[in-house]
Design brief:
The chain is α/β, with parallel strands linked by helices. It folds into two domains: 108 residues, Enolase-like, domain 1 (2-Layer Sandwich); 222 residues, Enolase-like C-terminal domain (TIM Barrel, Alpha-Beta Barrel), CATH 3.20.20.120. 35% of the residues lie in helices and 21% in strands. The protein has twelve helices and 18 strands. The protein has an eight-stranded parallel sheet. It has a three-stranded antiparallel sheet with strand order 1-4-5. The protein has a three-stranded antiparallel sheet with strand order 6-17-16, covered by helices on one side. A hairpin with a 2-residue loop joins strand 4 and strand 5. It starts with a strand and ends with a strand. The relative contact order is 0.16.
C-alpha cells in the first residue's frame, strides 16, 4: 500500500470561536492510500487540545508507511498496530482508518455504511453558533434558521450567554445544545447551569475542565439537562472511567482514531447506559463522511464542520436543511470538487 499526504487550507465563513479559542483559517491534511489501482481518502484534523499538530501528524503518517502491510482488508490489525506506535496522534490514525474503509468500499463497490451493516447514513445535524458579539450572533442565527437548520448548538461560557440564548429562544423553539468548552470551575458550575434552565437545553457539553471530570456527577444530579463529556472523553477507556459522572459522551474521530475505535466507544457507552453524540472539528466533507457513516447509532450528531466553511474542497454529502446524507456511491462517497 502506498500512503501519501498533502496539506489543504480551509476558511470558515465567519471566525469560529469558543470560550477558549478563535480561528479564521485552519489547515488539515488529506491522506491518499493507493493499492491495486484504487485510492482511498482520509483527512487529518489535528487539535492542539490533544497534543496534535500538523507537523506531528505528518511525521506520524510518514512512519506509518512501514506498518500498513499489503492487505487493506486487515483493518483490525492495521489500526491496532498504528495505535500501538502512534497513540498520541490519533487524528492521523483516523485518516488512515478512513482511507482503508474508503478503499474497501470502492473495491467491493458498496458504500461504507452498507459495508458496516448500518442504515443509510442520514441524520439531523446541529448547526454550531460560535462565540461572537451579539450583532454577529443575530446574523448567524437568522442565516441558520433561514437555511432550515432545526437543531442549534451554541457555544457558551462567556459574559453575554443570556443575551444570546434569550434572543435565540425568541426566534427558535427547537433542540438547543449548549457547549461550554471547559468554561467553568466546579464551585460555580451548578449556579451557571441552573441559570440556563429557562432556555430548555437539550444537553450541556463539557461544562468543566478536563481534569475536573469527577465533579460532573454533581451537575447531572441537577436534572437541568443531560451532561456530556467531550474533552474529558478521548478513547474507549475514558467511557468506562466516566460511568456515573456524565449522562453521555461526545465521540470525535480526531480524539479516538476513526470508525473502528468509535464503534468500540459506542458499544461501551450503550452497555453502560450512556447517551452518544458524534462530533467534529471544522473540516472539509472528507472528515465528516466517516462519522456520518455511523451517525444512525448516535443520539445527537454535531457533524457540521464542512457546513461552516466558505468553500468546501470536497463534495458528496447531500444536505436538505438540517438533514445531511450520504448516497449510494461506493466507499465514503466523497470526491474532490471540480473547479
Amino acid at each position: 500500500m502506498k500512503l501519501t499526504h498533502y496539506r489543504q487550507t480551509l476558511r470558515p465563513r465567519y471566525t469560529f470561536a469558543t470560550s477558549q479559542v478563535a480561528v479564521d483559517e485552519i489547515e488539515t491534511i488529506v491522506v491518499q492510500l493507493e493499492h491495486d489501482g484504487l485510492i482511498g481518502l482520509g483527512e487529518v484534523v489535528p487539535s492542539a487540545l490533544y497534543g496534535q499538530t500538523l507537523e506531528a501528524s505528518e511525521s506520524a503518517l510518514d512512519a506509518m508507511r512501514g506498518r500498513l502491510g499489503d492487505d487493506p482488508f486487515a483493518i483490525e490489525s492495521i489500526i491496532a498496530r498504528l495505535i500501538e506506535h502512534h497513540d498520541a496522534q490519533r487524528a492521523a490514525v483516523a485518516a488512515v482508518d478512513s482511507a482503508l474503509y474508503d478503499w474497501i468500499g470502492k473495491r467491493l463497490n458498496i458504500p461504507v455504511w452498507r459495508l458496516l451493516g448500518l442504515d443509510r447514513a442520514r441524520t439531523q445535524t446541529t448547526f454550531t453558533i460560535g462565540v461572537a458579539d451579539p450583532d454577529e450572533i443575530r446574523v448567524k442565527v437568522k442565516e441558520a434558521l433561514a437555511d432550515g437548520y432545526d437543531a442549534l448548538k451554541i457555544k457558551v461560557g462567556v459574559e453575554h450567554d443570556h443575551d444570546t440564548l434569550g434572543y435565540i429562544r425568541e426566534h427558535f423553539d427547537g433542540p438547543l445544545l449548549l457547549d461550554a468548552n471547559q468554561a467553568w470551575q466546579p464551585d460555580e458550575a451548578a449556579e451557571k447551569i441552573t441559570a440556563l434552565a429557562p432556555y430548555r437545553p437539550a444537553m450541556i457539553e463539557q461544562p468543566l475542565r478536563t481534569e475536573d471530570w469527577q465533579h460532573m456527577a454533581e451537575l447531572c444530579r441537577l436534572g437541568i439537562a443531560p451532561i456530556f463529556a467531550d474533552e474529558s472523553c478521548e478513547r474507549p477507556a475514558d467511557v468506562i472511567r466516566l460511568r456515573g459522572c456524565v449522562d453521555g459522551v461526545n465521540i470525535k474521530f480526531t480524539k479516538c482514531g476513526g470508525i473502528r475505535e468509535a464503534l468500540r466507544m459506542i458499544a461501551l457507552a450503550r452497555g453502560l447506559g450512556m447517551q452518544v453524540m458524534l462530533g467534529c472539528f471544522v473540516s472539509s466533507s472528507l472528515a465528516i463522511a466517516p462519522p456520518l457513516t455511523i451517525a444512525t447509532l448516535a443520539d445527537f450528531n454535531d457533524l457540521d464542520g464542512h457546513l461552516l466553511l466558505a468553500d468546501d474542497p470536497f463534495e458528496g454529502i447531500a444536505q436538505a436543511g438540517g438533514i445531511i446524507e450520504l448516497g449510494d456511491e461506493s466507499g465514503l462517497g466523497i470526491r474532490r470538487r471540480e473547479i
